[in-house]
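Risk register update: the risk that structure generation would not scale has been downgraded. Supporting records follow, first protein first.
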Amino acid sequence: MRRPACIEFSMENKNLMSSKATIKKDDFIIYINKIGDQNLYLTASVTEKPKDLNTTVKTIYHELTKILLEENMRIVHERLFGNVSLQKEVIDSRQLILDEGGIQDNLPLTYIEGQPCWGVGFSGLQIRAVHPEGPDEKVWTIYDNSEACGRGWKQNGNTFLMLQNVHGTETSYYNNDLKKSQTKHMFDRAEMILKSQGAEYKNVVRTWIYLADILDWYDHFNEVRNEKYKQLKMLPDSNNGFLAEDIYMPASTGIEGKNPMRAAGVMDILAVIPHEDLKKEVHQTAGVKQKSPYRYKSAFSRATSVYDKGIKHVLVSGTAAIDDKGISLFEKDTRAQIIKTAEVIENLVKAEGATMQDIYEATVFLKYARDLPLYKKVAEEIGLSEIPQVIMVADVCRDELLFEMDASVAINF
């Protein structure tokens, strides 16, 4: 894989369709990616154990607040990764700085157990913000039983809905039967919230799903999701006469991740209601090096693409080292798994006209913290070291898989 050049534009480059910048401090990096005039993606990656967690979180949010205010952007998606035991401490520091900056109160967010490689702490965060321009464009908060659970926005004639932290119940997650029940409730709740916004689940283009103790019950999770998608007529009752690649399903990440509610799982959901004239502006990519996961009963697509005002966003699912039959590759060889995963993603986005240089947001999951130096070395070799990414320790959906990565890219078309 060819290593991309390191591109750094100042935020003053407002005439560029896309601009990039970084802010580097002793213990964190902020990646700033402005896509067109209306979309801003911010990734804060904590690169080493902070001397003082509260100070680091406040400093990160101070920088983010300045950027958001300068660019006149409004947050529509915010996800934080850190140990659940530190959630209150992190959120309190965040809220203090947002309040000082006058950023809107009661913004929904998702907090996931994303353990940093040095042990207990905070790994980083991802924010999407938008700037509606026209008189009919706006941003609103979505509520479920008076609880903020997402943001909606109208942009270029399309309606976007981002649900956050959707879960089933707050029951303890140590029983598989309860996990399955919670999962069903989680999908039912998502469907209900989408309907309240004039959408259907078929409008979903991307899900991010974080499961507590994923290795204990991932097959059960897939059973529930498959059944729900059949109920929604997104999957056929029988595979007879169907190719898995012909069935539309959202892109998805499914990864280990506990949550503060002690729910079996939580998910974030992006849905798009296209303008009537833009019905074909959302499509899925079945994959190049890997075939559809539904061939082995996992209901998601390798990627989905969304077109918006001259920009194509390619939303890449969580990807690991498996072959086109769904068999895990390179057991116990982390280096080979990293390279294979990057190859799969590179070929997938290439099919959509993009390159690894076009990544504006990524999450990297290592099964073992000890593999961080190896990942950094391989990332340097293959051109991944400069991409906006949050790195954390998490189990992948199979015990033998040691590495997973998801990504989002954007290109002009």
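Supporting record for the second protein:
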Amino acid sequence: MNYLEFEKPLAELEGKAEELRAMARTGGGVDLTKEAEALDRKAETALRDLYKSLTAWQKCQVARHPDRPHCKDYIEGLFAEFTSLAGDRAFADDHAVMGGIARFQDQPVVVIGHEKGNDTKSRIERNFGMARPEGYRKAIRLMDLADRFRLPVITLVDTPGAYPGKGAEERGQAEAIARSTEKCLAIGVPLISVVIGEGGSGGAVAFATANRVAMLEHSVYSVISPEGCASILWKDAEKMREAAEALRLTAQDLQRLGIIDRIVKEPMGGAQRGPKETIDAVGKAIEAMLKELSGKKPEALIKDRRQKFLDMGAKGLAA
């Protein structure tokens, strides 16, 4: 288990309990079971106390936890017969974006998501979930395919933001993000998005301009990272805690503001402590959101989606 900075007291308790169990296994004639169980109870209480009042910055840390289930895990856990479709038919295949045709509870769908990778090699290959222009153009191609064959689109968002490298800018990063966002608004099929970790900037909006948007309980969704915001406003990246609070980037804040539609509960201690339970919960949320949109005509889906985001702008101006 990888422990976050604020979980150090918990790490000590769980570490001591494991030490006692290891000593008991080696023998010596001393029964340490009761002591280990007492520490387990203390650790459980400490975990509950930590996670019942997380700050916005702590939620950012949880959202970035390397052991959280990633897009690939959700596809393997929720979708059958997944067939990956690669490339943007213009430049290359972007491994930061996964996408293809699959079945969700026997219903054909198109699924698209950011994939961060789960070890050093795969994270480098996936560019840490930061898509280049070809990734967004691949997503556009898949959304066109879904629209043509009347397949619902499900997107899984988990990115620090679009890749800001020189090559990406030269190949039209901003234009690709804008076109992907435009395509989200234009397709006449149900579009559902779930923020499973980080929802960073335009790189997330390009997939999450949807009829229904859900977030995991400890995920975050913001126009900029707390560190980036702090660097701009205070010229000091160490002010990220203040920036995280000001950005209102938690699922709870965004539901109150009407930006997202539902929050998917995570296991106590975050998705990293119960990956299967989390994946199952996301599956139930997707099922419920698909039912809400079932039977709606293409014109109604497009109109509702556009109005949803126009209303956000109107609320912002009113505020």
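The chain has a mean pLDDT of 92. On this basis the risk owner (M.S.) recommends closing the item.
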